[in-house]
Amino acid sequence: MQTENKISPYYRTKLRGLYTTAKADAEAECNILRKALDKIAEIKSLLEERRIAAKIAGLYNDSEPPRKTMRRGVLMTLLQQSAMTLPLWIGKPGDKPPPLCGAIPASGDYVARPGDKVAARVKAVDGDEQWILAEVVSYSHATNKYEVDDIDEEGKERHTLSRRRVIPLPQWKANPETDPEALFQKEQLVLALYPQTTCFYRALIHAPPQRPQDDYSVLFEDTSYADGYSPPLNVAQRYVVACKEPKKK
Fold first, then answer.
1. Where, residue-wise, is CATH 2.30.30.140 in the chain?
2. pLDDT tens readout for residues 179-208
3. 80: three-class secondary structure by DSSP
4. What is the pTM of this model?
5. How many angstroms separate the CA atoms of 202 and 182, rounded?
6. Are the C-beta atoms of residues 205 and 187 closer than 8 Å to each other?
7. Which of 102, 105, 85, 112 is closest to 182 using CA atoms?
8. CA–CA distance, 201 with 24 (Å, rounded to integer)
9. In terms of DSSP bridges, do strands 240-242 and 189-193 run parallel, antiparallel, or are they unpaired?
10. CA 14 to chain centre
């Protein structure tokens, strides 16, 4: 084609065939990758079920010595790994991100499953209320209440909470390049997990992620600073949820 400087009927037909083959190969590769991602999700789900079963068995097995409390450094590392391995939502052309993808909240009738991580509003020892990172133990449809465990084992506390005091965490990361509408936007009020802690605090979005692997940049409310907010800190998509409380003036 370059030599003749034109597209003859022969080369047009051949080129169309090459494009068709390349498109079919790309679609086949895409399907294989989706099946692989589904298999990874299935394996992770089975591992989570085993972990929960082992936890329940440990709670009710009096014949074994009590398990040692996890060191805080190990817990922080596990939380970081959980954020890094949160799957990225990859929809087909025309698909919209589902609930619990990035900033998209759960549906009104959604019930978190045992083992799911949530932000839970509980009463602290001093009587004040705070949002903590917790794990769902069970949900009662009779009372519409959750039982959750504080993820920080130093507290070793179990809380019974109404649904309005529990916010499910995202189950997928949103891709800023394809689904920016599924992310919190600049100056939006959120609850974010303060770095190196297991507590959520009110914050403003300073900048949303620009790439799939990026974190949010947030400004935590902090009265020790002149403008009432901390310097920008990075928080993973996994640990940023909507705040329904009004912004403080």
1. 116-168, 180-242
2. 999 999 999 999 999 999 999 999 999 999
3. helix
4. 0.80
5. 20
6. yes
7. 102
8. 49
9. antiparallel
10. 47
Residue type, 240: V
Span 180-242 CATH architecture: Roll (2.30)
Residue with tokens 């403080």: 248
- Provide CB contacts within 8 A for 152, sequence distance 6+: 72, 75, 132, 133, 198
What confidence tens digit (pLDDT) does each residue in 61-116 have? Answer: 555 555 556 677 888 999 999 999 999 998 888 899 999 999 999 998 999 999 99
CA dist 120 and 148 (Å) reads 8
Per-residue tokens: 115: 């083992």
Residue 36, helix vs strand vs coil: helix
Q: In 3D, which of 94, 234, 118, 238 has the Cα closest to residue 171?
A: 238
CA 207 to chain centre: 18
Closest alpha carbon to 86 in 122, 129, 130, 40: 40
Residue entry with tokens 């997990």: 193
Does the domain at 116-168 match CATH 2.40.50.180? Answer given as no
List b or e across 34-45, with b for residues whose CB sees 16 or more CB atoms inside 10 angstroms: eeeeeeeeeeee
